[in-house]
Amino acid sequence: MVTRAISHRTTGGRRFRWTMYRPQSLRARYTMAATALSFLVLTGAGASLDMVIRHKLETDACAETRRVAGRWSTALRNGDVPHTIPVFNQVKLVQVVDSRDRVIESSKPAAGLPPLSAVRPPPDNPIQKLTECGPGGCSLLAAIRTSREADSTFVYAALPAPSILTKHRLELLIAAAALPLLAAIARLTWALLGRSLCPVTLSRAKMSEITPNDLSLRLPQPPGRNEISQLVGTANEVLDRMETAVQHHRRFASDASHELRTPMAGMRLQLESALLDPENVNAHDAIRSALMGVDRLQAIVDDLLVLARITGEEPAPPDAVDIDDLVRDAVERRDGGVPVHVHPSGGARVNGTCVQLMRVIENLLNNAQRHAETRVDVAIETVGGEVVVTVSDDGDGIAPRDRERVFERFTRLDSGRRRDPGGSGLGLAISREIAEAHGGTLCCEDAPLGARLVLRLRLLDQRSDPLTAA
Predict the structure, then answer these.
(1) Helices marked H in 379-458 — which ranges?
(2) Which residues form the HAMP domain (predicted)?
(3) Entry pTM
(4) Hey, is 353 helix, strand or coil?
(5) Rg from Cα positions in the chain
(6) Confidence tier at 316 by pLDDT (50, 70, 90)
(7) Mutual orientation of helices 283-312 and 227-276 as an angle, nearest 10°?
């Protein structure tokens, strides 16, 4: 329970505080709401039932008294009314009253009683239904005027009102039947909500055990496909992604610190040697070696910044990019190295960021030229709604066991270290990140000679291409 305090200032300047208690438990709230709604429904149903029963009983009683009063009214007009009116049914109180309020004839139970009612039906409404209450209780009464003359007589037939209609007995009986039903509804609602929210309680208890240092725990998956089950499933999927991301970041931080520590340690060793033994160590060579280490550090830092932008920043608005033109531009900007032969397809357009896709092409060309012996081939084609860019070289190739490792961050095979000692080991990892960010793939496939890297991107729909539509 939570307490809300509300203050109010009166004209006298005094402050009064009162509190309103509102349950924070959903189970309690919904049980109270269901009970309140059931109370309103049962109240309406009880009131309707009370009206129906009361109307039925009163209608039957009035019909019986009216029938008896009508019978003796007819007998009175025919002069066949005895001095003591016999009783044949439940209507035991029958009186014949003249215009002077004198009881002329009556049934034996009504003998000696004053007139049953002071109401005298007028000529334009000779038959009336009445309810008369006295010290002995209430009666349902029918009054009939026997003629239109001023000195007409009146016949009254009365029946004691059913006991269930007196002293609110009918209402109390309906309430007594409705209260257990209302309690059963509240109890059932509480139990059903408890069963429904049990997975939430278990999940909350399990969630409290999860710490940043241990994200391996998962919430217990309830059966079925209701909203709570879907929520728990989504939470477990989020925990899977969080665990993967945390492990990825930890591994990345460890690899980055290791890769940065190696050139820094080399630079420190060379500079300290130059300071401690200036006679035997050439300072110019030490500075040149240190600058080479700085270049390697700068390359690693630049690639790390690229990875951070790809994974952490909002992507730039995509544009229609012609892969044929992109590859040709990347090849024309290259300065020397193994010749690159381009085999364009024509019409290979994708939706993406031109700068990032250019970075992928350049990384693939750098990797291919680094390992090629005589040539590099770049083939562009469209297959099944995809643009496929294949970069092949005639070098030593990549062993099947290393074809996934080359896309891991800071992974450098022995052949790559020999050919480019200053590489960062992030080029292919960055390329795959960019490809996946564009909804594509980058992988290493079988080749008869050398290595074969294949980039696949979704082909731009011609109907959504503004240039084609124009």
Answers:
(1) 414-419, 427-437
(2) 204-247
(3) 0.50
(4) coil
(5) 50
(6) low
(7) 170
